[in-house]
Amino acid sequence: MTNTQFVKKIQDIMRNDPGINGDAQRIEQLSWILFLKVYDDREVIWDLENDNYISIIPTGLHWREWARDEKDGQNLTGDELLDFVNNELLPGLKKIVVTSETPISHAIVKDAFIDANNYMKNGILLRQVINVVNEIDFTDPKDRHLFNDIYEGILKELQSAGNSGEFYTPRALTDFIAERLQPNLGEKVADLACGTGGFLISTLNLLNKQVKTVNDRNNYNQAVFGIEKKGQPYILAVTNLLLHDVDNPDIIHGNSLEKRVTEYTENEKFDVIMMNPPFGGSELPIIKQNFPTDLQSSETADLFLALIMYRLKENGRVGIILPDGFLFGNDGSKLNIKKRLLHEFNLHTIIRLPGSIFSPYTSIATNILFFDQTQRTEKTWFYRLDMPNGYKHFSKTKPMKLEHFAPVRAWWNDRQEIKEGNDYKAKAYTVKELEDNNYNFDLCGFPTGSEEVLPPFELMEKYSEERSKLNTQIDNTLNSIKRLLEEDE
Questions:
Q1: 0.90 cut: is pTM over it?
Q2: Which of 85, 216, 452, 458 qualifies as a cystine partner to 211, CB 3.0-4.6 A?
Q3: In what helix (H) or strand (E) does residue 383 lie, and over which residues does it extend?
């Protein structure tokens, strides 16, 4: 089954259910169903590898016990299936007891179902959805490879599913940032607002190529860490990691901003941090109190950037996506964050990204900031990545691809100043130059088009000429229509 076939089957079934209202609910419904199927298939492997394996899922609630269709006419369906899901399955999974001693591989089940809901009201249609998911065997390498593509397709749909779009960062962006930061086995990589886990998966795809020994595999299993505030992306992220052979997905269902930043210990810091924090979000006033006074901001993205400063190890490195507002903003907290970036970290590169990358979720212009904690900043390179040839804008059908980063990849290791006309496409600025510019980082930006202003008589003549051309086109079209009508008589 292909990606398109799988998604279309699910869509066609759920569109007929009166309880599903739009793509956001459809994806949320599918999220917990997929989690249970993937988790059940992983448990089959864990049980084979460990004779003493004990599942945290209560008896009777395992996928294999109620969801499989044995073709014997005894499978749950209709009202009986709805009653089981609503009154036994979901309540039972939400009541699972987790302690500090519970392994991560078990605790994730409780976290995954805290906010899960069953929106479907037709038990026959729910059975049909379950049967489609049952067609994939996640213990089969071929099926798992295929499903990685299917799952990526599901995540992409989040971009056009209302507010859920905030949880998905295009894979080209996560792959490019991971590629530039070059994580290594033995390092701990974090995303402090991980959404569906895109950055973590890009990291794992790179690290998997480094696995040669059993110890390497253990390091791989412990390489990534994430925190996600909302339930739906959390369950998608956990499922994503399970699909990539991470048996203990170290992802916390919570808010990264809820702890005082000055209380973090060395053990809570990371070698690599990459993320796309929420833009324009807001937090409760009490959250701001977790930050020093000079860093308290009403902009969520600013708070995450400040948080990174306290959770990055010495010599650690960062890649973070931020909106244009941060570059030219000069309010107190933004100004103080920029000063810290320049004087306490090495802000070495800012990539200006072309527009519409996050379309249709948002049209906000974005940038990638790369910095590390190796030294103070000496100079910051700015590079403008232009829209690729043949593209006016990105869209769901024409998304940004990793190959579109080819120009900046070629420039990265042999940095040269680039000037096009009166504008710089790439240029390095010293700390003093940035300070003298009042910490305005809106440099090497995209040229803005300007309308041609003509003298009044020339303007009237131009409009008259254009109107004459348009009238001629209209007359020609009307004459063509008239001839066609006369031929029909």
A1: no
A2: 216
A3: strand 379-384
